[in-house]
Amino acid sequence: MRMKELVSKVLFVDLIKGLSVTFKSMVSHAVTEQYPKERSKIYERFRGEPRMAVDENGKTKCIACNLCAMNCPVGCITVEAERDPETKKRVLTRYVFDMQRCLFCGFCEEICPVNCIQLTTDYEMSQYDRKDFVLELNELEKGMEKIKYKK
Amino acid sequence: MDEVKNINKTNFAEEFVDATEELVLNMGPQHPSTHGVLRVILKLHHEKVVDLDCDIGYLHRGVEKISETLSYKLAAPYMDRLDYISAVSNNLAYIETIEKLAGVEVPKKAQYIRVILTELARISSHLLWLATHALDIGAMTVFLYCFREREEILNIFEMVTGARLTTNAFRIGGLPQDVPEGFEKAVKDFCEILPGRISEYEALLTKNRIWLARTKNVGVISPEDAIAIGLTGPSLRGSGVKWDLRKAHPYESYNEFEFDIPTGENGDTYDRYLVRLEEMRQARRIILQAIDGIPEGDFTAKVPKVLKPPKGEVYHSIEAPKGELGFYVISDGSTKPYRVKIKGPSFYNLQALKKMCLGHYVADVVAIIGTLDIVLGEIDR
């Protein structure tokens, strides 16, 4: 046994074994991707950029129930509403989503009774200014304004 | 003039070496091999460690206090961010504690899927540990190979839970939604490639002479010391103590699965490396048993929307990838917990650093921090 160990040490068996793994992976397929050109598959359940859904008339689906704001661990959602004197229903006046604080936990999406707020599969959310992360209702409906990087 | 003569008489170099004083060296908090923001204050004699002290708290966020201000459900995403490389395990520990407190019975199907996801998290955590540990010691190649496999696991997490790292995977009572189509296939595909990949790491490291020189007899800790300090997880099992909460106090459905507890002999860095590699294989074994036996049924139990657990206190712990992760929750009967105490494995494992490092070289400190597998997000909370 000792002899065997000595021979393998002199013949660099351990290093050759390791190098064989390296050389094998050199001729195998690449596992990396060239990011802006190639994009990996994003699964349906991915929790990315928030979006507010609209109905067929282009009006917001939000019923101002305030459940999303109450179920947010960090309190990044603000819902402001007024009671309509004619229909006696709550009408949304302002909806603010602070993306800087968002944990992307998905509780707001889960609790929403009308499937209005949704976390989409968009994941490119970088901005140049902090104030651009505080989204108002109209920004949430059409999506964040994306800044294209220019050379 | 007389003094100059005296110096010339003695061997100057020898005297100079002997006169070297002890040197205090600050390692971190920005040191890359401290895996976060750990500051280690080393007292060195030449290049050997004489004394050592850890300074923690750079990453303190007050998670325990925050969870007192939130309802039971809403604190769960914060628990993902304790040990962020095995977020699923952290979430499971918290959710299970609340379920124990409120007396919620979880359906079998949810339990099986929980087991699969937490075991995947264990493999992912061990892969990241191996990658960074090998990188610290100087084996650069392993790093990218491990990340290649970890990517597969993260894809499965994304498919099931919707996020790759901070998964927020479980809810009180079960799962947020049923597993999607293609989940079983993805897990089985991963289980198929894993043993081959582990043998690749073994080919690169296990017999490698540099790896052996850097890990054998480095950071030795006896079983008695390990128990006295409170080591848990692979760090304890590396010393030869057969203690695993999955066997000792089975939670979820772990008593229904067959698996072994790997243990080491010498309690050195090399043994802990072997133990973690074997644990990955055992985790795969559990996953394969669970995925074949997912029972039919509901994925969640009926839980009231506003959860008000009865007055009382409860401690529950699970075997997280790094060791025993426990939660101690006191309820005062309202919607918010009165107190949440987290017993993180990394904090306890870090206490062994001094015992392991004394008498070793500075370069070995890096290897020993790596072998303890600490995450600062959990130490500082």
Describe this protein's structure.
- The complex is a heterodimer of chains A (151) and B (381).
- Chain A has five helices and five strands.
- Chain A is an alpha+beta fold.
- Chain A folds into two domains: 1-31; 50-142, Alpha-Beta Plaits (2-Layer Sandwich), CATH 3.30.70.3270.
- Chain A starts with a helix and ends in a 9-residue tail after the last helix.
- With 381 residues, chain B is mainly α.
- Chain B folds into two domains: 2-52, no CATH class; 53-380, Cytochrome-c3 Hydrogenase, chain B (Orthogonal Bundle).
- Chain B has helices at 2-9, 12-18, 63-69, 76-80, 87-102, 108-137, 140-161, 183-205, 209-215, 223-229, 234-237, 245-248, 269-292, 345-350, 353-357, 362-372, 376-380; strands at residues 23-27, 39-45, 48-55, 312-320, 323-331, 337-343.
- Chain B has a three-stranded antiparallel sheet. Chain B has a three-stranded antiparallel sheet with strand order 4-5-6.
- The longest helix of chain B is centred in the first third of the chain and has 30 residues, at 108-137.
- Chain A binds chain B through residues 9, 13-15, 17-18, 20-22, 25, 31, 42-47, 71-73, 103-107, 110, 119, and chain B through 70, 73-78, 141, 145, 148, 151, 155, 158-163, 166, 168, 176-177, 180, 200, 203-205, 207-209.
> What's the end-to-end separation of chain B, in Å?
63 Å
Helical segment count of chain A: 5
Described by its quaternary structure, the protein is heterodimer
Write the CATH fold name of the largest domain in chain A: Alpha-Beta Plaits
Q: Tell me the radius of gyration of chain A.
A: 26 Å
- β-strand amount of chain B: 5-15%
* Rg of chain B, Cα atoms, Å: 23 Å
Q: What form of chain B results from the Cα inertia axes? A: globular
- SSE succession of chain B: HHEEEHHHHHHHHHHHEEEHHHH
- Rounded average pLDDT of chain B: 86
Q: Give the strand line-up of the largest sheet of chain A.
A: 2-3-5
List low-confidence stretches of chain A: none
CATH architecture of the largest domain in chain B: Orthogonal Bundle
- Note the run of SSEs of chain A as H and E: HHEHEEHEEH
Largest interface (C-beta under 8 Å): A-B, 27 and 30 residues
Q: Would you tell me which CATH topology of the largest domain in chain B applies?
A: Cytochrome-c3 Hydrogenase, chain B
Topology, number of strands of chain B = 6
Sheet with the most strands, sense and barrel status of chain A: 3 strands, antiparallel
